[in-house]
Amino acid sequence: MADTPRRSAAPESEPDAAVPRPDLPARTDPGAERPTGDDYAQAQLGGPRGHPDLAPAPMTPQRAKKTPTTPGDGHTA
């Protein structure tokens, strides 16, 4: 077996021209992870649960009905 040069897959009439690729936007941090569904939900709600900048959750009518109006004597049982 003799070493013979291989022919290129491109036709003889066309030189080996590189296919132009679209320019991709530069990433600021290539090691950064993509945002998760939790990240999107926190951004939509305004922050993580219990954050002091968020307004308190409104009391539902059922919870208002169950909440005692007078304090008990301190015993839990």
Can you characterise this structure?
With 77 residues, the chain is mostly helical. Helices cover 19% and strands 0% of the residues. The chain is built from 2 helices and no strands. The longest helix has 9 residues. The mean pLDDT is 75.
Task: List its traits.
mainly alpha; 19% helix
Q: Please report the total strand number as a whole number.
A: 0
Shape: rod-shaped
Termini separation = 93 Å
Order of helices and strands: HH
Beta percentage is: under 5%
**Unreliable stretches:** none
Number of helices: 2
Q: Secondary-structure map with pairings?
A:
Elements: H1 37-45, H2 61-66
Provide a short characterization of the protein structure.
It is built from two helices and no strands. The protein has helices at 37-45, 61-66.
